[in-house]
Amino acid sequence: MIGVINTVEQAFIAPRYLAGIGDPGWITQPLHRVAGWSYGHDPLIPRVMLTSPDQLTQLRLAPGDPDDPDWWTIRQARTADHPAWAVTFQSRTPVEIIAAFTDALTDPSGPPAAEPDPFAALQDAGWETPRHFGGLAAPDGITRVERLGTPGSDLWHIETAVIRDPTIWRAVFTGTTPLHLIAAVTQSLADPAPMMRDPRRIPGWARDRMTVHTRPVPTADVAFALERRISSLAERHRHATDVPPAPPGPARGRAR
Prior knowledge:
Blueprint: E1 7-14, H1 25-33, E2 38-39, E3 48-51, E4 57-61, E5 72-76, E6 85-89, H2 95-105, H3 120-124, E7 136-137, E8 143-148, E9 155-160, E10 169-174, H4 179-190, E11 195-197, E12 211-218, H5 219-223, H6 225-241
Antiparallel strand pairs: 1-11, 1-12, 2-3, 3-4, 4-5, 5-6, 6-10, 7-8, 8-9, 9-10
């Protein structure tokens, strides 16, 4: 007898930057359980504070007005090799896009030897420079990425907005933010794969600008998606810490 696979309807939303926030645990759980970030927040306050093991980096999730600019804030203190930096994401930023940043930040292999161009993945995906605008815009014009200011006092700015609605979400990176972390976010923005969401929680904004397909998905795939993500990141850490044994040296013969 063939077993029956239980399924649940899920919505697949494109473009991904309109998918809505998702589960914040997609970000906080791997930071704590895999990367070893500690928490010290008051359980009576609806706020999350996570600190990296070296005490240099802190993530703060402070829910409030959905239009507040800094629901998500990630800050790193100055080090001998790099100045301090800070990043903020508004409430409606899809967690998968923020997770691209935190996954790159906690990658045990460290930053690449050469810093990438955050615009490169967008250009490869067909993003273009619109008229009277200095950065790049998605083909549908909904999301824009730009670098503002001058070196030393610049900002990277991402905004998702449509004409009839206010800004849906915005992200701001200080110019000192390592470029490979910003590039991880732009790579996620450029990804054409839709985001999976509960059909009852499809965002109400810009509905006419998104494509939504619903289909049944195995219940286990939904229930254990976060655990599979955590397992994958834990495996990444294990591979990075596995140091192969040094090859044996030449055999020593008895002196004659």
